[in-house]
Amino acid sequence: xxxxxxxxxxxxxxxxxxxxxxxxxxxxxxxxxxxxxxxxxxxxxxxxxxxxxxxxxxxxxxxxxxxxxxxxxxxxxxxxxxxxxxxxxxxxxxxxxxxxxxxxxxxxxxxxxxxxxxxxxxxxxxxxxxxxxxxxxxxxxxxxxxxxxxxxxxxxxxxxxxxxxxxxxxxxxxxxxxxxxxxxxxxxxxxxxxxxxxxxxxxxxxxxxxxxxxxxxxxxxxxxxxxxxxxxxxxxxxxxxxxxxxxxxxxxxxxxxxxxxxxxxxxxxxxxxxxxxxxxxxxxxxxxx
Length: 289
Known about the structure:
Elements: E1 17-20, E2 22-23, E3 42-43, H1 46-59, E4 65-69, H2 78-91, E5 97-101, H3 104-109, H4 112-120, E6 123-131, H5 135-141, H6 147-159, E7 163-170, H7 178-192, E8 196-201, H8 209-216, H9 224-237, E9 243-246, E10 257-260, H10 264-275
Parallel strand pairs: 1-4, 4-5, 5-6, 6-7, 7-8, 8-9
Antiparallel strand pairs: 2-3, 9-10
């Protein structure tokens, strides 16, 4: 079966086999997200998933990476997820990694033994949307996973061998709660210690609840300088032991990459130069989601 649009996947999965095991997102309540509007959530039938795998394997038997879609494939019951992973291992002899978006609540629902079994079948990377370390901000946005669930989810996954890529959304607190957003996000990330970390910048999507808040004057977006200041303040507070950092998403005004703790001074230096007007920023017309 052809992939049902829209397709949302991390930049690092551009060359992966995109396997839809669910449609939409079971936690499609976030006020800032318009990714799956008009795409009701449902779990795909196992026979349909297996058929998709077989068809792709006939064309690309050397596939090494698979990304499970849509928004939170880990919502699948263990009894449904494991057979799909086993099938992937059977038809792709060179398979090296399976990855998926994963809500903190869905990770913490899995037992340690279940997480270990997922890892044994090559599911070795979760993309987790922390967005903010402030529970108050997440509650306001309607996010279903709590900060604590996301922290514990990443730590428990790591204990099972599964790496996590945490996503932070700069500007999510707006002007009013920017300081809280920064402080709480630093605290959450330092506890979480994700293997990978990326920054995105908030772009208000028409038709979302956040767009209505903006229209009413209940939310104020950060300007370019304020977004850069948030990035600087978060990075300055991070004490990460071995984290690969990327801020190269199209929504960001400044592309950054490095590894913590080694490159922390260089990242701060680049942000300081941008704030001082010494680095050319991505123009608004070139930004996008």
